Amino acid sequence: MTRSDIIKKIYQHKSHLLVRDIEKIVDILTETISSSLADGHRIELRGFGVFAPKKLASKIASNPKGGAKINLPERVSVKFKAGKLLSNKINNKI
Hints:
Order of helices and strands: HHEEEEEH
Shape: elongated
Structural class: alpha+beta
Largest sheet: 3 strands, antiparallel
Number of strands: 5
Distance between the termini: 18 Å
């Protein structure tokens, strides 16, 4: 599902809202989540899940094309853990 698909889906359920207002809401939501994660904060959406920054240590890896050793610096990734309601919804649909 893409950003525009999400906007269309919201508009189908809330047609009294203008599409440009829905676009602003989606942009604000994604920007807020992104900037909070960049600042090292954890985001919890009850029933949906938790986004949390995860620090990955530096390591030496090998380039799959040629096998040369490369140094990967310390970096931050995003970890997502699905909430109970989301897990139940997904598992009951399969």
